[in-house]
Amino acid sequence: METKGLKTQFDIIVVGSGAAGLYAALCLPPHYRVALITKDTLKTGASDWAQGGIAAAIAPEDSPQFHQEDTLKAGVGLCDESAVQFLVDHAGTAIQSLVEMGVAFDRKGNNLAMTLEAAHSRPRVLHAADTTGRAIVTTLMEKVIQRPNIETIAQAIALQLWIDPQEKRCQGLSVLYEGQIQWLQAGAVILATGGGGQVYAQTTNPAVSTGDGVALAWRAGAIVRDLEFFQFHPTALTKPNAPHFLISEAVRGEGAHLVDTQGRRFAFDYHPSGELAPRDVVSRGICHYLQSQSKSSQSNVYLDLRPIEPERIRYRFPNIIRVCQKWGVDVFKEPIPVAPAAHYWMGGVNVDLNNSTSIKGLYAIGETASTGVHGANRLASNSLLECLVFAAQLSKLNVTSVVPMKQTTERVINHEEQWQQEMPQIREIRQALPPLMWQSAGISRSQTVLQEAIAQVSVWQNQLKSLSVSQPIFNLLPGQSVKFKEAETQSYLRTCSETLNLLDIAYLILKSSLFRTESRGGHYRQDYPQPSQAWQQHTLVRGDCWSQGDID
Ligand SMILES: Cc1cc2nc3c(=O)[nH]c(=O)nc-3n(C[C@H](O)[C@H](O)[C@H](O)COP(=O)(O)OP(=O)(O)OC[C@H]3O[C@@H](n4cnc5c(N)ncnc54)[C@H](O)[C@@H]3O)c2cc1C
After folding, report:
1. Parallel/antiparallel/unpaired status of strands 188-191 and 301-304
2. How many degrees, rounded to 5, is the angle at CA 284 between CA 282 and CA 288?
3. Which end of the chain has fewer CB atoms at under 10 Å, N or C?
4. What is the pLDDT of residue 409?
5. 284 is catalytic
């Protein structure tokens, strides 16, 4: 394979081109040379798929204080109040910046239109039909491409972080790009790699959401936090062979009913707010309801849009109409078959209000980070807002210049045949992991099942680490680079690195779920079904050390 010359030194490297990564790159001081690397195309990621909208208390009858109260309530005691305050106070500025850049939010007359979503006490969710994320990402991408100080590098996969052993500072990372693994050096690395929904068999997340940032940061020794908290969205399309396409919460906000086969609104059996109760309550309600109907082996319930005016459906949900139609569901005539799916990871790399992790020179933003705004459960439409508000903080980033690294020794390796033989084992693990996680660390968890899953995942981790295809990921010394002869090698290495990352995050989710002996928000233990005052604390992890509240 021919390799195009890739610059190896930057002031700052941003990993990921979702809302968080793109906005961060734009906010960074323009005199820095910034590399924006992303493992697929620039627009691939969860941000592009976001439908419902972005929350901001900017209507006259609303206030940041109400937004803060709703966020804290949804987070069930685990939000960091200062982080939430920061989020809601800066929402208006973030929206204004998007509008000035040209994001065309829907309007009602001259004002921005707002909708109500579950657990919000006021209509405060701005939207651009049901493709809000796309509207934001497209605008940010256009701006990034125009910026001379930002070099975008697509199809480039971050593999490992480079931590200087003396200074314990992040110096860059290794990247797989065009048939070569090499080190890129920088004064700061910003992880914006999104979530990890692909670790579960049922997920609304795109294929790139393999938890890479959390896995890389954890392996490098950074503190990660609250990884047991995963939000399961109640309403993903459930049709044979169809992807688990999200049917946005906004649909229920606009008046759609969650019903069983008889058309009964069973969600009120589980919570007085019915289908507008918090997501974890509705998801568990659906699972409980389905289990109680087990004789009929029913695997979904239904979302009926017909209580909404047809004109309103056409105006608000054109993408949902289109996708449902593609899978044979006419939303004007029949309810949509739906079931819960893994949707949003509240936990992540522990950061402060400036996005600093516990490692100098390493930052995390967006879904990869744990800023403290979501606590045990995210309030709908707060995540796009978090991406922007926290990324904007990077305008103050001050980067120390790097001492250029020593000459690289380039090795050309040709392990094609051996790696090819190892691939079936990797693919088998990659296929078996998500169903295991869905059963063991999904909507309902318990000690024995978690312990069994941890044992299985540990076996797979060891197997994979010992394969020869894993060696360039783990054992390449800073300064070294390797080139591969065959084109397939890139895809072998990508599959291997993503599977290693998925196994690492699976291990972290399982162990954190076992550690927390209570139920709260996105973490439900059937053997400890109540929240406990003693557990109103974060779960902190560094290496193989789990700690409640604080860590040295
Ligand atoms: C279907 C769906 C609907 C949603 N709707 C809403 C909504 O209406 N409102 C809301 O607030 N939130 C919503 N969310 C959540 C929200 O979209 C995400 O939390 C948010 O977009 C995350 O942004 P991000 O920039 O952190 O990550 P992403 O947008 O996922 O971007 C991650 C980027 O990192 C890249 N990457 C990953 N690993 C690597 C690697 N190793 N090397 C290089 N690049 C890498 C990816 O390719 C991608 O470019 C929704 C999520 C989904 C899945």
Report:
1. unpaired
2. 115
3. C
4. 72
5. no
